[in-house]
Fold these 3 entries.
Entry 1:
Amino acid sequence: MKRLLVMLLPALLLIGCGQKESEPDKEVSGGMENQEVVLTVEPIQEPEQIKFNMSLENQGENAVDFQFSTGQKFELVVYDSEHKERYRYSKDKMFTQAFQNLTLEPGETYDFSDEWKEVPEPGTYEVKVTFKGKAEHLKQIQAVQQFEVK
């Protein structure tokens, strides 16, 4: 009987710890207004690269606290017209595994950028940016933008 209790106790603790109540998430995506945060991405073609200017704006009335589990603040992926991946920001990079925080006050903007050190052949491309910060009551924040390379 004692053995059975010793074996069941850890399992019961794991089951009890794994359950948590949560409020429904708000979906947040770039280019669309939402209740709190907007992510935008602006691709700019330069002679030897494509530059991506990104901006995360808190349009709500309360501060939003983001937590990061690594040094990577965002992921950016470029797809061609056949939805083939052509560029990924994190490819061949390593990021620290340190917890970091970012607080955006109401009306405050966090700006960041990336450069794709290549100008691909002319055509239509799509860039998808995912902000890696997690905030209470917010789903993962993304922006998707089509752009033309001339």
Note: The domain at 23-149 is CATH 2.60.40.2360 (Immunoglobulin-like).
Entry 2:
Amino acid sequence: MKTNRFNDVASFERVTPEQIERAREFQAAVLCDVAGRRGALHGDIQPLTQSMVVAGPAFPVEVRPGDNLMFHVALAVAKPGDVIVVDGKGYQSGALFGELMVTQAVAAKLGGFVVDGAARDVATLRDSALPIFANGRNPAGPTKGLDGRLGVPVSIGGVSVEPGDLVIGDCDGVVVIPRADVDKVLKAAEQKLEAEAQRLAEIREGLLVSPWLDDALRAAGVIGADETLA
């Protein structure tokens, strides 16, 4: 009897739909700040259009540079809503995906692509319903003959990504929040928005120097204890 070694690769625990919807209320920058300014992928990984927003559980994939065999396997086994996060080693001398794979992802109701590698067919992909983040573009196609890894922790853009972690991305870039930290980070994000709204109101009222700035300057030894900017 034939067996499928990939039957269980997508069975990991994920952030919940409720957590994902709450996360969509916040900019990636806000979530990154309250997560300790950690989790932001390097700035080369950007959306194909500025309006693309991704939010969902990470389905990590590691491929060999220039080869997308395991990326195709991930497309076949990922669950609806999953964001396929590909450690492509930053390879830019050929594309790891294009129109065909994105069309398949849309049909499978996946949540998006975040790829440390290049895309192609960009003129078409810009109009896709799938949020797509990549580190560049190249017309050359990939090979499909090398092994990789699925559904295990990977490192992409300088960040460790575990299966089921929260992936959130917008025009500023992509942030990954560990699944165990999501509720704490979302609560902190709400508090940060409240504080920022208060500060915006103060600026409009003419309070142009941030209240914390004097203390920070004294701590850094820039001004003395009896000096002030105000």
Note: The two ends are 78 Å apart (CA to CA).
Entry 3:
Amino acid sequence: MGDRSSVRDEEFRAFVTGRWPRLMRTAFLLTGERHAAEDLVQSTLEKTFVAWRRVGSADDPEAYVRRVMINAHARRHRRKLREFLAPRDDSGLAHEIADTGDRISQADDRNALLKALVQLPPRQRQAVVLRYWEDLTESQTAEAMGCSVGAVKSNAAKGIAKLRAVPGLAGTLTSEGRK
């Protein structure tokens, strides 16, 4: 029994080690603050570890963990009555190499984009982050958010429209950048 437990612990440790930067980035984009993102990832991983036997054997463990994170963020958000803090900077995040096809990563003023993103309502923010920053399909985003594909399309379109209305961001969010 102890042998299976140590194997499970090692699988979980390998998962966390491999996914930590991406989980932190997603959490930062959802929360808008580094420390809140760390708290969100930690609480998500605590919940995931308890169910790791089921999660680790799933077809896509990362999708499961992402869903737990989104649900945890939504619960926190409801409790805080929509209190968002604009990120001061993103220097503490592990940065990925920019993908030249990703319009959002090409934004001239990343800080302005993050501040604008933080002002979106939670569902629109989740849809935009998962759809365009995490590059998930509409169905993957719908599964992660626990809603229909139509709700994802609607929330993403409204979120992008609000971001386009922000001065200085309109040029970076062109129709070619939409999926």
Note: The mean pLDDT is 78.
